[in-house]
């Protein structure tokens, strides 16, 4: 029987894609980028995405602050589109404020956390930026559900490293055999749970195929399934 539940955040409890899309749209509108000669929002997004992913992926190695990641991403995108890049710092600041204030939930998040709160200690393990994750949880009215938040840039370790899981398990005060971790990533979440020797519930709403060599403890396709699964395990 589990005595504590840990969650990933983005694309597990929070809809990162929806928040990112809306924040970018609001940024474009706020700075009236559509008035730039030949500006096309879809082309801007398609060019920005891989540039941003490269900077984000390299941020730890290059010791980049999130403000630099965003500034360089907007700068390079504007340059590639043939526009003046002097707006990049303002665009980065505006986008970040919109994003940190924006909280779209995955279907079933509110109901699941309401059902589990008070029955289990709940925690978060996220490879995100502390300011964004904390503000988004607050904006979504979710902060009070969690006893502990372990966010990579705050604890100086990240999934799938065992260390970030060990910190969470120690804070929860339970044996690792009594912890269930829920997440949507096989590279960060599943691998991290295996490294930490804790059970893993793979949240797979898109019903993507899973390599037979990958064997999570459970697979769910909606968050509502988790409450039923926990109730079943409790009664075994």
From TrEMBL:
Which InterPro entries is this protein grouped with?
HAD-like_sf, HAD-SF_hydro_IA, HAD-SF_hydro_IA_YjjG/PynA, HAD_sf, PGP-like_dom2, Pyrimidine_5'-ntase_YjjG
Q: Which NCBIfam families match?
A: HAD-SF-IA-v1, YjjG_YfnB
Q: What is this protein called?
A: YjjG family noncanonical pyrimidine nucleotidase
Q: What does the organism's lineage look like at the top?
A: Bacteria, Bacillati, Bacillota, Bacilli, Bacillales
